[in-house]
Design brief:
Length: about 550
Amino acid sequence: MSPVEETALAPAAEWWQSAVIYQVYPRSFADGDGDGVGDLAGLTARLPYIASLGVDGIWMTPFQPSPQVDQGYDVSDYCGVDPLFGTMEQFDALLSDAHALGLRVLLDVVPNHCSSEHPLFQAALAAGPGSAERDMFHFVEGSVDMSDGGVPPNNWQSVFGGRAWSRANPGSPTDKDWYLHLFSPEQPDWNWRNPAVGEYFDGVLRFWFDKGVDGLRIDVAHALFKADGLPDSPSAGGVVDGLRSNPQVSDQEEVHEVYRRWRTLAEKYEPHRLLVGEVNLEPARAARYTRADEMQQAFAFAFVKLGWDPAAWAAVGNELEAARQLHGATPTWALENHDIVRSVTRFGGGEVGALRARAAMVALLGLPGPAYLYQGQELGLPEVDVPLESRVDPMWARGGVCRDGARVPLPWTAHDALSHGFSLAEAAPAVQASEPWLPQPEGWGTHAVELQQQDPESPLALVAKALELRRLLWKNEVFGPNDGGTWRIEDGSLLICERSTDFFVAVAMGTEPVQLPAGSVLLSAAPLAEDGWLQPNNAVWVLRG
Ligand code: NOJ
């Protein structure tokens, strides 16, 4: 049987095949207690807003106990709630409120590394070289001569910049171990070749699934297993080479066994739990993580990183489609997340960037497969140039790019009493509220939710309209789980993605108006000037016949 036939025989739609999930970055969503950091109480209070968009669920980035070196991606207790965000009772209430509103809840699991404050890492440090405790992580002896600061076990560079190794015990003349951290030194990598690590994480998954959490987003999913023997990497550049698979470091065959086991575990629950991977690899490699018995979804990272370039969109789209035909899972689309520059800015900034971001979002929601929206994307927020003295991103601190600009607290109200309504305490003058943890720039209030809710032409209104139509098209079987996505360019700059024989998405990516192929326009990102023509930076959904 050819892979295409295999796909055609796929079972009927599962909820996640058509789902649109709203990514919540809790520290920047809504602040319930007025300390300047968003939290579970704030999120719970604002859940009706999320439900009103018409999404199917939320993905929450980490709120578990953490020293917050990497804003929660340095977890010191996988089964708790950091007091900064609230309590486990508050999480339980959030989950139940979300379910009552028809929203599924996905959490982030960070299995590649933990915090250096995690009790098991602390135990490893204390136990010393050669111990079973150290075997839970990658402790390796480095150079014997420490006079020059020592030489680490291999040449790997951290994703955040600088070497990927730190001394276990810098003051000790006898402890010559170094430990591996693909990210900051405060984020030691687990040793997945030790079965005890896998057993530990099975427990973490069960803990949240037993509570009724609907799924997990898996952080750095392709990197859990490192190349056996930890060889030098020939690309002196670093550990994770953007999208390229780096077989000297990660993307090892053994990691797939983890996801097969997790899928089995996820399917022991009713409804089945969802696994979505941050698999930052080129399409052909990434799609291997969504084979029938592994994760259900993996973000299409090749797409997330594209600029406003029709040839690149078509090439990546067709690459993703080829991978889908081979492995059977549609791509999981996203234009933004908390790690990358907001699409308005990425696509040129200003009015043009705003138009393009609307068009890209309309295109994305019409493509076959699930999609994720990042909080604030529905408001058309641009990237913020956070003042140097306010930046807290550890990647920036280690010489990499700064990701704070996509993480600025949301503007809820136009009026700036303190934080544009980010702090719910603003409405309760008895509570002394603090400034938001990242400063909101001048003019932030022009993007406020309260303004956009009154404006039928706002990005917010557009998202809600697109999602409503999308649901209808699924219901009426215009959209189906086996739709493909064949991409081409017409007239030099009109990008077309044929979703099925009946439906296509078109984006005008050039500087001149372009004629659309025949069909009825169901949705457009900006008003249509003339029938049958598309102005630059507009996108449409078209039904044929
Ligand atoms: C990916 C997360 O999205 C990012 O924010 C984090 O810094 C790294 N993984 C490390 O956990």
